[in-house]
Give the backbone structure.
Amino acid sequence: MTETLKNYIDGRWTSTEATFDARNPADDSVIAHVPSSGTAEVDVAVAAARTAFAQWRHVNPSVRARHLHAIGDRVKAREAELARAITTEMGKTIGEATGEVDKLAKAFHFYAEEATRVHGEVIPNDVDGFTSLAVLEPVGVVGAITPWNYPLELVGWKLCAAVAAGCTIVVKPSQYASVSPVLLFECIAEAGLPAGVANLVLGAGAAGPALAGHRGLDKLAFTGSTATGDIIARNVPRAMPLTMELGGTCPMIVTDKADVPAAIAGAARRGFRNVGQICIAINRIYVHDSVYEEFVDGLTAAVETLTVGDGLDASVDIGPMATQAGVDVVEQHVDDAVARGATVRVGGGRVAELAPGYFYAPTVVADCTPEMLIMSEETFGPVVGVMAYSDLADAIALANSTDSGLASYVYTRDLEQAHELGRLLDYGNVAVNNVDAGIMNAPYGGRKGSGFGVEHGKAGLEGYLEHKHIRIRYGSGR
Ligand code: ADP
């Protein structure tokens, strides 16, 4: 029998009358019935988080740390089950899903340790007899709205940092990935986190706007599309801190001094991992004339070896896309490029024999030009566009020409070029001779249309803290 999921609010599992179906993108089958939460459920969850905050904010950081470590241990113990849930609900391969769960467990342990390292400063005053304490306090009740592409990590970064800081949180995950967040909250319940500290409200449609527009929040953390981020930023009900991690149309520059095989391996990895459905996926590639043919041939050969199928099959490299709408966008971008004169070197269409699953073949489109959709908008699918350049300044200008500012990639063995590109690329992350911009203990975030605020690392925790100045007159003047 298909499972009916529940919300986790104030330490209890609760149902809603109305539900909707969650589907497996590999075969379009129904895998769960999901609560259609709305304002009523969000109100109860925010109230529970408010009540819990009054206590949790004063809980000793070492105790908060113990809770986070315990959750991380539960997540790791249930790794295989959580990974299977991810693959079944959004399609990524089981190997990648297992990696995601492992990184989630590490995030709990990382922020458990960071929780105990939050401290302020003693600041000298310009008048004798006074001292100033600058202390850090938790922001309060956090709303977190997350997408389906990293259904656990993107919840986890927010939840771990918020709970470590002494905040409480209400999480609204994507309607396309509800099963794995439920398992995460089972881990949270098993680890004994006090009721109301972390709450889960599932839903489509009404649930997101109800949370994003709730006056009871002190902070909102969002990861998702730029379009939804814009709507949320316009509709927040009162002044409050926001963290927005939005889309990227991420560029890669391969210079005349690049290690071309390494650049090919990097493009094959960061262009096609998670079926290209990553905010920091390589979307558009600018390659110097002198190495263009070698690069395109090599990338084509690498992509030809990728196997497509159900992500639960451990031999598969490319699973289904998470949604049918995502496949439609990819098709539109590839068709647009071809109509404007680009060449499909490999792939270029849906995988008919795997219907009704949402499959699109991994695709390399060469000889692109800047006005093509593939070179100017986020494709968010298993496709990269490649174009040649002759002057590095032009490549930099093209890389910076969109509203995207999340991540950029460079391959060069020339020190001068590496520093120049690191400085001039207008992105929150620049990865040089590697394609892994997001690591746990360094700040990760975008600029321009890709959002603001950071997650990961110490800076990710700071987003859940606010400053307080306590100025004390102690009298003696000495
Ligand atoms: P993606 O398709 O990448 O998941 P979306 O921006 O559509 O990106 O969705 C990200 C999250 O935002 C999901 O949890 C979704 O339910 C939620 N969401 C969508 N529209 C709104 C909205 N208007 N207000 C608040 N949340 C929303």
Observations:
- The mean pLDDT is 97.
- The chain has 15 helices and 21 strands.
- The first strand starts at residue 3 and ends at 4.
- Residues 213 and 235 are 6 Å apart (CA to CA).
